[in-house]
Write a structure and sequence with these properties.
It is a single chain. By secondary structure, the protein is mainly alpha-helical. The chain has 2 domains: 105 residues, no CATH class; 56 residues, Orthogonal Bundle (Arc Repressor Mutant, subunit A), CATH 1.10.10. The chain contains 8 helices and 3 strands. It has a 3-stranded antiparallel beta sheet with strand order 1-3-2. It starts with a helix and ends with a strand. This is MarR family transcriptional regulator. It comes from Deinococcus xinjiangensis. Keywords: Membrane, Transmembrane, Transmembrane helix.
């Protein structure tokens, strides 16, 4: 579980840092980026149509000027520590949220969830299962499995059948 938590946190943090870098690179001017992409497509169409070399050279020069007007690599590199800090904060936030969910699920704070897990497990096994099966093939720990089956026996949701249980 910690591997998944670590990978998810790393991916979220690095993605946030990359998005922040991209936003700083264009000074947040999404319209300028879209204009650049539109002009680049127009240059591609002009080239494919067989236009003259002068027209293509002028269009390339205009596209280069537009690209330099939209991009701000100096600003993006100056803000790199802030962008990385944002990535670290997002990664830590994801780590914390993921940990809270795992801790809440593992703490047994919601016995109804554990009971639903046992019911689903039992239905998949044809209504009959053993405590050993439940401990090995479900996310419940041995202690949780014993507690939830005891609760369900007391309420009449399960019955004992030899070494196993039946719905």
């Amino acid at each position: 579980m910690n591997v998944a938590r670590l990978l998810l946190s790393l991916i979220a943090g690095l993605s946030a840092a990359l998005i922040a870098f991209s936003a700083a690179f264009v000074r947040g001017d999404v319209g300028g980026v879209m204009h650049y992409l539109h002009e680049r497509a127009a240059l591609r169409r002009l080239t494919e149509s067989g236009a003259g070399a002068e027209q293509i050279a002028k269009a390339k020069a205009d596209l280069l000027a537009l690209g330099q007007a939209v991009a701000a690599p100096e600003l993006a590199t100056q803000l790199l520590p802030l962008e990385l800090l944002l990535g670290v904060l997002v990664g830590l936030g994801v780590w914390w949220i993921f940990g809270e969910r795992v801790a809440r699920a593992a703490s047994g704070a919601r016995p109804d969830i554990q009971e639903r897990m046992v019911l689903r497990f039992a239905h998949r096994r044809g209504g009959v299962f053993t405590l050993r099966d439940l401990m090995e093939r479900s996310p419940l720990s041995a202690e949780q499995a014993r507690e939830v089956t005891t609760r369900m026996l007391e309420r009449g949701q399960l019955r004992r059948e030899g070494e196993g249980y039946r719905l």
